[in-house]
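Hi U.,

Before I forget, here's the chain from the pilot set. I'm dumping it here mostly so it's searchable later in email.
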Amino acid sequence: MLASALRRCSAVVRAGVPVTPGQAYRHSSTFRIHPSVEEALAEGRPVVALESTIVTHGMPYPQNIRMANEVEEIVQSNGSVPATVGIIEGKVHIGLCEEELKFLATSKGCVKVSRRDLPHVLSQGLSGGSTVSGTMIAAHHAGISVFVTGGIGGVHRDGENTMDVSADLTELGRTPVAVISAGVKSILDIGRTLEYLETEGVCVTTFGDSRDFPAFFTPRSGYRAPCNVCNEEEAARLIAHSLELRLGSGVLIAVPIPPEHAASGEMIEKAIQQALKEARLQGISGKDVTPFVLQRVNELTGGRSLESNIALVKNNAKVGSRIAAALSQIQKPKGGIRKDTRQQERQTDENQDSKPVVIGGINVDFIAKASQDKMEFGGQTNPGQVHQSFGGVGRNLADCLSRLGVRPLFISAMGQDDLSRSVLQYCSHMDMRGVAQLKGHSTATYCAVITGSGDLSLGVGDMEIHQQITEKHISQFADSLRQSRLVCIDGNVPVSTIQYVCEITRENRVPVCYEPTDIDKASKPFTSDSWTALTYISPNVKELISINRTLGYSVDFDVPRELDDVIDMAITLSLPLLENLYCVIVTLGAHGVLLCGHSCHGLLSLHPKDKTSRGDLCAVHYPAAPISNEEIVNVSGAGDSLMSGLLSGVLEKLDTDTCVRMGLLAARLSLRSRGPISQIISSTSVSVRKVAEETWPEPRVWTIHPTNGKSFLRTSH
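Structure:
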């Protein structure tokens, strides 16, 4: 069961994909590169490697996995792609999906894997957390230049007698990876460690306004570094020159812990001395010393050392991801970033102006997920987790399509504030030329409260900025709309803007997909004849009811419980729309998706060459891709991922079955993700080949025979 689950979320490495300048992209059966990491490397986007011993040996569950997720989110929000390295069943994974991360976080038999341990661990098919040296080897193999950790190993106290010197130091001397850390762990002999690094030819620098070398828990160790970089750009230039010189050695950038999180150096030092004494008395030696001492120091300081440890790792992640982003700008080839083979083939095949267009909202989402399914709403504080992500239906569609290799022009509006800067960093893989930044307005925010099982319980949004997605703003991109292969528009857009877009697309016979967004906004196109210009619409059943009521039909808001009754209702409500629309794509949540539309040779078609040529009506129900309740983390972006996967298949002119199942694969990945759109989604993880590898339940197909008004008969086949 575990092996098959891990295989599903492991990367399939493609030969011959170019990566960052000066790096060889070497593949073997030993290394598994996650699709999101592989795609980022191929496109020249910044990637940050992360170790996993902090997950396997640094903290107990579930604190360890919570910490790992938070660090990855910090890396993402600061413009880079996280690549946590771990060893799972004899394979080195560069980038972990949530299943793999949880496996390492909960397994009892994981080992610490340094350079010397790799041959044994891999040959025996074992699993473990990668140390600094092990992570550096994996990062260099993949072409990742920046690695973030807490603190590196070094020369142990009394090392002149014991010869106990960490492999991290020799690895820094022979592997060209920049290591961002809070200096050297304070349980070590920092002076001798710096001497050893000098012998190994390692460039050591501090980050910030001081050359004082940090001592992990405290910003000053009493030693000075050979040099200093003041900011991310200086650090990136230093790394770039080191790589260009081909010295073969790494760079150590020591980032002091933020002063507000620094524990008392005297208290920490006293606890370290006691812990080291206890280790000697208990006969603890070698690689077991560090985890023992860190655990004991945490106990002796009443948890203050662990709090400082967490704070410095998060700070290092922020600094390291920004350095990686600055480095990618330096290394970016003239003419822009690389594109993978699939994108190059697509763009030589079509004019750039014919690219799809997505018009809709951007939100910065604050997701609060309760620990339990049942919540109290009487003013009590419900225990759970809160994190920030980036959403908005339009943004989700453009994000997911971009990850799938389509990269549409995205048209939207946001404020000129700190949140907008975060959005631009996070969405660097998207075409954001159409996004207006408006002074005096706030970037839209949305707060979602989610139950322990992943269902949305309550949402609160500040969406005023969406009213600024006006006809005037859209008119700047009228030529792109006229020449586009597909236009997607969401319900956050004002009615007048929807009408304007529908006029242009109708005149130029451009297919249009409308995403209803919610019950209140679903009916916007249906308040006039604008809706007759639509090609596709993707409502849920309640949104379909709202649309029908707007069209003047009397419909009860009660939705049946039985699936067959829901399908009957959805078909009934779709019939009036199919007089003009080509396909109604009804999302059914855990029950999958129902397509109601026009058939070609007895099969439902998603490719209308001309909306006036129509076949018989038919309906097809596709069950959802298999997923357990335990795997579901967030449902907020699943519908947007479903439509993105489906539409990417439509744009590639694939058959209907493949289009829908690509959408179902994308939806499943996002259900497992903390954010609305999974970072794992790519043209590798959602592809024709992935569809073929899955075992799918057979869809149910009916031919629809309208009888009178909204009544119908159906025959299955």
